[in-house]
Every structure is written in structure tokens, then in C-alpha cells.
Amino acid sequence: QNRDSSVDNWDHFDASHLSRFSRHRSGREGIAVLGFIVPEGGVESLRVKYAESHPKLILPGSPRTYSGAKVLEVFAYYKGEKRTSDVDPGTVLRFVERLDHRDWVLPGVEKVDASFDGLTSPAYCDHWVSNVVSRTGFIDTLHDTLGLSPKVHFNCGVVAAGEAQIESTVTGNDPGLQTDDREVALRDQSQVYLPINNALSEVGHVHLYLEEIGQGVQHIAS
Question: In Gene Ontology terms, what is a biological process of this protein (predicted)?
Fold first, then answer.
């Protein structure tokens, strides 16, 4: 439900965002937001890049400044080719710049101590896979705004299983981390991998996903 706070009216909790996502995902559930923590000055720097190269993707009213953080939200995809097509108002990329260490993930979310049963293993995000109409357009958009660049082209970019054919590219950042410590490598979240798929045939899971649901995050892996 809509939230009202005497301290902050946190827009990211507003029910209108869930309604918009549902309308443009054929009413299906899914991953509506990919969130990233950015350093000091990161929100303004990204706002400028989006405003210069992809202004249509910026959500109305964004960025927003709260008592503990700045939040920039942008739509992830265009409906077709970059710049020339309309915005796909489904999946959102959210960038959070913390002004207060207590806002550790998102304004309005409080950190609590967690207890485990001794059998549970921690999981850390490894990659987020998108199914899109224009793979190259999304790659270019991420490069223009976030500086991401392709890391892997599967089998020269084309993957086939029977009659099902897709193109797939993994794009990502260059955090500069170098370590031989397995625990550090496992827990470190500075490396971002975003595999991106588009369909080449009218059969297979990517084609059916796009036809039945629309563009979006197919899955995440930890």
C-alpha cells in the first residue's frame, strides 16, 4: 500500500511501481528491480550520463534525496532499438548512494541481526540474466551510462539447442579486484556480470519468455 512517513515519503515503496510492473509483464511475477550501491557522487554522475545519452529512461521525479541516501531509478530497457523506440516501463535499475551508514541497503529498510541453524550456507549474487528484444542495444546503453563492456560471447554469440537459437553476451564492469583469497573472492560484490539474451528462432525458452511475458530478468544465480 502507499506509504506516508513524517520523516521521508519513500517513493520506492509506493504501490504504483508494482502496478506498473505487473501491467507490463502480463500480470506475471518477476524481478522488478536490480539495485546497486554507488560511491559518493555516484548518483549525480549517473544522472548526468543518462540525461546526456538516454534521458527517456529516467523515471519521473528521479533522482530523489532522502535523509540517509540518494536514489536514482531508471528503466532498464527500450521496447526495441535504443533511443528510437519507446521505453519499456517494466524492469528498473536502482542506484543508491548512502549518506548515512544506517541506510545500508535502501532508505526505509532496517538492518537486523540474523541467526542461522548451522546448516544454512550463505549465498552471494553471481549474475543476473536478461531476455531482451535488442541485445546489442541494451549492451550499448549499459556502456553509455555505466561503462560496462562485453566479457563473453557464447560460441561467437550464438547458442543453439535443436531448433531453438539465441544470441547471448555477458557484459560487466572492471572493478580492478585481484585476490588469491577464496573467501574474499566469494564475498566480494564489486564484480557485476549481466548476461543478455535475444531469440533468433520462434521456438525455445527465450522466444517464449519474450512472447508471453515481455522483456525482463529471466533469472539470477548465486
Answer: L-tyrosine catabolic process
